[in-house]
Each structure stands twice: as structure tokens, then as C-alpha cells.
Amino acid sequence: MVQKPTGPGGLPLPRTDNSVTWAITDENKPVKDGGSPEPGPLRVFNYADYIDPATLKKFQKEFSTKVEVATYNSADEAIAKLSSGAVDFDLIMGLSGSNIVDLIAHRLLAPLNHSYLPNLEKNVWAELADPFYDRGSHYTVPYVVWMDGIGWRNDKVKEDIAGMDVPWDIFWQAQAYRGKVGILDDRRDALSMPMQRDAMHKGVRPDLNTEDEDVVNKAQADLSELSGICNPKVAITDYQTLPEGKTVLHHSWSGDVLAAAFYYLPEGTPPDVLSFWGPDENGVVQNDFFCIGKGTKRPVLAHSFINFMLDEKNAYDNFVNFNGYVPPQKGIDADVLLKQDLIPKTLESAVVRPDQFASNQELLQLSVTGQRFWDDAWSKFKAG
Amino acid sequence: MSGSRWTWRLVALPGVAWLSVFFLVAFYTVLAVAFGNQDTLSQPVPHWNPLDWNVGYVSEMLDNFWHGGPFWTVSLRTIQFVALAVLLSLLIGYPVAYFTAMHAGRWKGAILLALILPLWINYLMRMLAWINLLAPDGVGSDVLHSVGIEDLFLSIGLLDEPGGWLNGQPVTVILALLYGYIPFFILPLFVAIDRIDRRQIDAARDLGASPASAFFRVTLPLSWAGILAGAVLIALPMFGDYYTADLVSASTQTNMIGNQIDEFMRQGSEKVTGAALTLLLSTFLLALMFYYLRTTRRAGTAAEV
């Protein structure tokens, strides 16, 4: 039998064919049922600009409390700060399956008590209410979902990208858009893009969590080819540069393209100049979590916050008024947004559907050795 | 006499202690991480005792350099960018410093103030402003077009297409570095030129030197220490700079060594590799620094003679 690679601290690496139930131990038990929310402030640790201030205000008013948000700029930064023990939060938002083993291995999380989270079962997609990376949702609850795809300005790029046999090929044919092309500045997302392209050409299902050094190096070589073809920017500012026309073709997170249509279009630029394509299968889907910090002194208040954010109205407001990333709610889909004229038809596929979660892949935490292959390949690509 | 010497030593003590603690301790930490290891959670484990040092990461890095790997590519690019930016600073900055020191008269204070004024605005804000100025429809782009610089750069291949200043062009990064750091070059150079004893120049002229000859044989050698000080002052931070290239380009073709360190330390899980790279950069800068100190000491000795 082949030994499966293990994650940090020797813990199992969750995969769709290897679901994991994280243990709840005696020394780290969930808060008891029936408690009242403790007095604040509720200390939240979140990605910068990743929650609507108006939604926060509403929570503060409803629970007569204060919320203090501290922010981080990358998941690694968040894990490093949390595991150093220097910071202590009631609620941690924005981390994903790429970090789940780190969160568990460093013992950073308190287990959840579902009696405080009725909205989880009521509103959240069944696909994510009991996910393979955290069976029973012992430690995590999904916040928002997104997928990797191609965002482009259809008034500047004339190719029918969505109609191409392998839409990813557009980046390797983008000589005409040289200097106005962008690739996501994230090693896992960026390197998995040529892997998807390669698999689409061969008609096979890629393993986007591969630990095969040759596959990772091939992806890097393919990605590096782009420098000669279109000299891409490596950036995560597509939500600004696409609507402003500073880039016209971008490897994008679906949520950024929606945010671009919601808030970043210059006056006089209609939203239907933005298009998005994302694969129905074998591509990248991701979801970010709500988690409760292990050291919390306000566990009931923290649960109340999660339940509040899982309320359909609050999730919707946070999505369309600020965040742009879709909450995995049963009642929110592309039709709802199209009917309310919030997005043009050209961005319909940027609203991730539940069925895409089964047929696409999440980028999950790798073993230390596997991570090294991806890091080295990325460093090679970034060196130019 | 000895009493006064002790007073000055005491006065210097807090500053020396501050630098020792915040330079030496921080530097030793980088050493201990670079010669350390990482745990199963990919977190760095510093080896504080030099007897326990693990040379693996540093030697892997040296191997990468030696065999022309990505770190070599990016270091070579960084050296080119910094050397060109320093050279341009000299070509543009020397006349400004010379004019201010020698001919500005009562405008001297105003010119110095004008040089310092941009520094009141945060470096990042100044770079962000350039993004709008250099956009295809930006004012800066228009000006460069109308004065013919755009055409010149297009014809010699420094620019890909009209208005394409932000399309990941090395020349934009070099010019942005030049803009960001040039005041720090001009100020020490101004001081050096301002301190030159004009009678030495007069003597050269009296002995038959032409103005050009007096400049090259008297003024320039006497301002050499200022040129070096300015060059060192701007080259050191330029070598570690990463946000300039990030903001005005973001292409892999313009990434500098600072971008690689940022990648390892802030974004990635290979902090030990990042520390090893930091160490190699510091060693290189230390060598530059020693060259500067040796040259200025020699110049000082020569002046005394």
C-alpha cells in the first residue's frame, strides 16, 4: 500500500477521497449549550477589506456590542501571527482548505457548538454543511466561495474565449495584449492554471493538489513561457485594473470580477464590458472559513456572529454591498442577481454554483515536501 | 581634556546602544534563522549557537547562484537596475548639487527646500501617483510623448508600445527608482561641494587651468566623497527595494532581489530560504560599504597630507 503524504505535524491531508474528521479533545471542548452572548468587544481577525462595515455595524447594534477587526494580507502571515501566540482572536475569518491542517496542527481553533448555528443547516449549501476537509463541521463554517477563471474586457479582447476548446490557451495567444495581461499573484492558483490547460488538451482530470515535482515544474515552464508572449503582470489587483482598462485579460478570482462590476467601474463604463469564464469541471473552486479562536473568552458571542453572517439577508448585503464574493447560501444564485440587474449576463458564470463544487477541485494543504516543490517552482517563475 | 572626552562618550552611549541592540540583535537573528532549520509545520527554528549551525540552506542558495539559477538571474537584474539608477542620479543630480552650492546665491535655501519637499509625501503615495501619471491617458504619458522621449525610447527598444510605460517595462522601474531616491543623492553631494574651499579653484585658474580643467582636476576630485556618500545612501535601500517594481510594473521581468525575499518571508512557507537570501544580500552590501569606508578614509588621509 502506498503511504499517503501527511501534512504539517504528521496530520492527515484532507482530500475528496480522504475525508477527515478532526478530533474534539477533552482539553479543548466546545462551549456549553444555552449560554448568552458575553459582553464585547468581539475581536475578529480577517483579510483586509473582506467584510462590509455596514453589516458589522448592524451586528453591533443588534447585539449591543463592539467588534474590533484586525487584518492580515496573506494566509501565511495570518498563520505565522496566530501560531506565534502573540495575537489572540475570538473569530478568525478568511482562511481556507489550503491552511486547515496548519490551523489544527498549531491548535489555533476552538470546536464549534452547532446549537448556536441554526442558520448553518438552514441556509448553507448541503455540499458545504458537512465538508470532506472537516467532517461534521467541527471547526469551520464556510464564509464565501469563488472559482479561478478568466476575466476580460470584451470591448478590447475580440476572441470568443468562452467558446474556445481550451479557453486557458488565450494566455498563450495573447501577443496582441502584451503588457495588459495579468496572472494571479498566488503560487497555487497561478501554477494550477497551466496544469488545467494541459489536462484539458489531453482530456484528463488534473490533480491540482499534486505533489509530483515533474508536474509542478512543467507547469512553471509553461507559465514562464508567458513572459515572452505577453509579459504578464503578476498581481491580484484585477478588480481595479480590469474595469479601468489597465489590463484587458486576467487570470482572476470570480469574486474579484464581480467586485469590479459592483464598485470599480469608472463613470461611463458599463458593466457588460466585463466578461468571465470559469470551468465547469477540473478547475479551481475555493471557500473561506469562519473559525473560532482557541483562546476566546467570548465563545457564545463569536457563535452569534457566525450565525448572524449565515443569515440570508446579512450574507446577501455583505456580498453585494461590499465583498463581491458569493456566500454559499441556498437562496443566493446568479438568477437572483440577474433579476435585480446587479450583474450583466456576461458575468453570470462568475457566480459559483453548488454543482461546481463537486466537479471542480479545492486547492488544499500539501505536505511540507510537496509545498516546497510548489514554492521552488513559483520562485523560479517570479525570478523571470 | 579627558573629562570632556568622557562626557562625549557618555552622550554617544544611548545612540551606540540603540544601534547595537537593533542592528546586531536583528542581524544575528537573521544569521540564526539562515543557519537554522524548519520544523514540521514549516516554521523557522533558529540555531542560536554557532556550533549548531546548519549550512544546508545557505549552501543551497550559493549553489543556485553558482549554477546560474533564478537567484543569479534576479541578482544580476537588481545590480543592473541599481547601477543604472545610480548613474542617472549622478548625471542628473551632480549639476543640481553643483549649481545649488556654487551659483544659487540667495536661492540656495529655496532650492534645498524644493529638493526636500517631495519627501514630505510618503514614498508609496508618490509611486502610486506615478501609476496614474504614466497610464496611457495620464498627464506624464502625454508629456513624455509630446517632448519626444516616448518616440526615442520606442526607437531604441526601451518601450514596447506608445503609452505602454506601465506594461512591465524595466526602464519604468529604473526611472521610478531614480525619482524616488535622487534627493538622497543630491543632499550629501551638495554638502560636499559646498564645503570645497573656493580658493583652491581660484588657484587652479590662476595657474592657467581652463574652467573645464579646473572642474575635472579640482572640483570633481574634491567632491568625490560626496558622490560616494550619495551613491551609497541610495544604492543600499534600492538593493532591498521591492515595492517600486511591484507598483510600476509587477512583471516577472522586472522583479528584484527584494521581491524574492518578500516572496519567501511574507508570502511563502520558506522563511529559512528567505533569511539565507537576506544574508547573502547583506554580505554583498557590506562589501560595498567597506569599499566606501576605505575610499573615504583614504580621501581623508590624502586631504590631511
List the helices and strands and how they pair.
The complex is a heterodimer of chains A (384) and B (305).
Chain A: E1 42-47, H1 53-62, E2 67-72, H2 75-84, E3 91-96, H3 100-105, E4 109-110, H4 118-123, H5 126-129, E5 141-153, E6 181-183, H6 187-202, H7 213-230, E7 233-234, H8 238-244, E8 249-253, H9 254-264, E9 274-277, E10 285-293, H10 299-309, H11 312-323, H12 334-339, H13 354-359, H14 368-383
Chain B: H1 2-34, E1 37-38, E2 44-45, H2 56-66, H3 70-102, H4 108-116, H5 123-134, H6 139-146, H7 149-155, H8 170-194, H9 198-206, H10 211-222, H11 224-240, H12 243-248, H13 257-267, H14 271-304
Antiparallel strand pairs in B: 1-2
Helix pairs in contact in B: 1-14, 2-3, 3-8, 3-11, 5-6, 8-11, 9-10, 11-14, 13-14
State the CATH topology of the domain at 70-268 in chain B.
MetI-like fold
Largest interface: A-B, 37 and 34 residues
Distance between the termini of chain A: 40 Å
Identify the CATH architecture of the domain at 70-268 in chain B: Orthogonal Bundle
- Which strand-content bin applies to the residues of chain A? 5-15%
Structural class of chain A: alpha/beta
For CATH, the homologous superfamily of the largest domain in chain A is named as Periplasmic binding protein-like II
- How many DSSP helices of chain A? 14
How far apart the termini of chain B lie comes to: 26 Å
In the sheet with the most strands of chain B, the strands line up as 1-2
Tell me, briefly, the overall form of chain A: globular
Roughly how much helix do the residues of chain B carry, as a percent range?
over 70%
Structural class of chain B: mainly alpha
